[in-house]
Amino acid sequence: MSHDENHDLTDIQIEHYKQNGYLLIEQLLSSEECDELNRTAADIVMGKIPLEEGNGFEMEPAAVSLGLASQTNPDPAYLFKIGHRIHVSNPVFRHYAMCKKITDAIASLIGPDLLCVQSMYIDKPRKIGIGQPYHQDSHYIRMEPDTLIGVWIALDDVDEQNGCLHVIPGSQREEVHPHETAIDVRQKQLYLEVHSARKRPEIACPLPKGGVVFFPGTMLHRSGNNITADRQRRAYVLHYCNARSILKHKPEYEQYLLVRGNHYCGS
Ligand SMILES: O=C(O)CCC(=O)C(=O)O
Fold it and tell me: What is a GO molecular function of this protein (predicted)?
């Protein structure tokens, strides 16, 4: 596939995103590209690749409680998360943050000038990986105007058993809801939650390895627990915005990466 190939979305895809607030593409990255990201994450956890300033990794809390792994005795099979600037500091993660397959698609949705503002590699280990309850990313990443878009790339086959994403179509048109302590006893140690979202009809977003979900920052979304006995659930999760938006929060470390088009002062 040529690097110059155009990956703009079709009118039908753009319309689906506008109407429903999310868009699934089943094969964005190849299986080999996903393997490269998974290998790189494992090398970071095992200390073979340095974790640059502004990044950290955490083991799954349940794995730590069970004595299966710890910060000083890490194991990629029990990872929780690496973040939040691997799209800047690591060449492999940066390559995919900037790849045209992603940036052309996002440009079709929020315009040609794009900043990547955050990245996470999130794992839900088999049997113990815990889901993130309903939230809106615009609660955490604030800007004016709000052009935030989440890009959730499945690095394993994902479904409702191993913790795929769920969305509430229509919620993308709403303001940011109050985010309160999560209700679930395990989730409350890690996450805030929009409690009212629990009663609302949702759509699961199962995907093959290499598939992606695009969704705006105001979309209410959650992930499930990984209840499978033998399947990991790894994802590369990126957040982008239109480079003309003014970000309210400046991170401690340089984190905003222009991935396409022009920079504008203020962002
Ligand atoms: O991958 C997950 O489990 C949830 C990620 C998510 O919802 C987010 O990063 O906003």
Answer: 2-oxoglutarate-dependent dioxygenase activity
Compute the Cα dihedral for 194, 196, 188, 44 and give only its sign: negative
For the ranges 3-12, 13-22, 70-79, which has the lowest average pLDDT? 3-12
Which one, of 33, 40, 46, lies nearest residue 76 by Cα? 46
Within 6 A (CB) of ligand 1 lie 120, 122, 132, 137, 150, 221, 223, 235, 237
* CATH number for domain 11-54+80-260, candidates 3.30.1360.200, 2.60.120.620, 2.10.109.10, 2.40.50.140: 2.60.120.620
Q: Rounded to whole angstroms, what are the CA distances from 18 to 21, 142, 215?
A: 6, 21, 10
pLDDT at 1: 46
| pTM for the predicted model, two decimal places | 0.97
